[in-house]
Amino acid sequence: MNAALLSKSHRRRLGGVFSPLDLSPALWLDASDITTLFTDSAKTTPVTSDGDVVGAWADKSVNGRDVLQTVTAKKPLYKTGIQNGLASILGDGVDDCLSTASVATATTPFLMYVARPLSGVSGEYVHDGKSTVSFGGFVSSYASPNVVIKMITGPLAAQTVVMSDAAFSNYVFRKNGASSYYRKDGTQTNIVADMGTTEINGLVLGARGDGTLSTNMYFSEVILFSDAPSADNILLLENYMKTKWATP
Hints:
2 helices, Jelly Rolls
């Protein structure tokens, strides 16, 4: 690990303020920061009120990989006071989604987010790469309160992660060939199927890579890395999310 990152991590454990920027993410979205939200994809009109549409959610990393939606009917909503008193972004499960431009981002991505589905229909996607079905979280089944998600990149993983429509949790999806895994609230499950290492070419939130098959879901914070952080830094990130969003 880079010595500078070790030093930063050490300082965080001594009581300093941790920021995901300390770990140089490929993309960082934070719904609690209203200054990063705009009603239009050109980022000219700020979001100001509960229920405003979100046409742009600005990336807080240095990479400028904003997630955008140009079609008004497909824009999710800004909702205040949703989890731990903080705001989240809500997709309608019909056609809402936000996506980056097609840009080289990762062949072995590590995606962490705090989220809560409100419903689920088999075949919908909670996220994907811009290359369709390159980094998909695929809804396998739904029987309230459980939305069962499988990871898909062409092959479909045997293991599933169960999302609850009753609560927010912290999720990690890690794509790295036969060493892929997911984590839910700090508990890791390895994925038997080989997920490959194809370039995801960006990120789509709330739908498949082509913008179809949307999921009715809250997203609170999203952090993407081009490769997995160290084990220590994963714990730092998970503790940061847990403290901020009051997840399990």
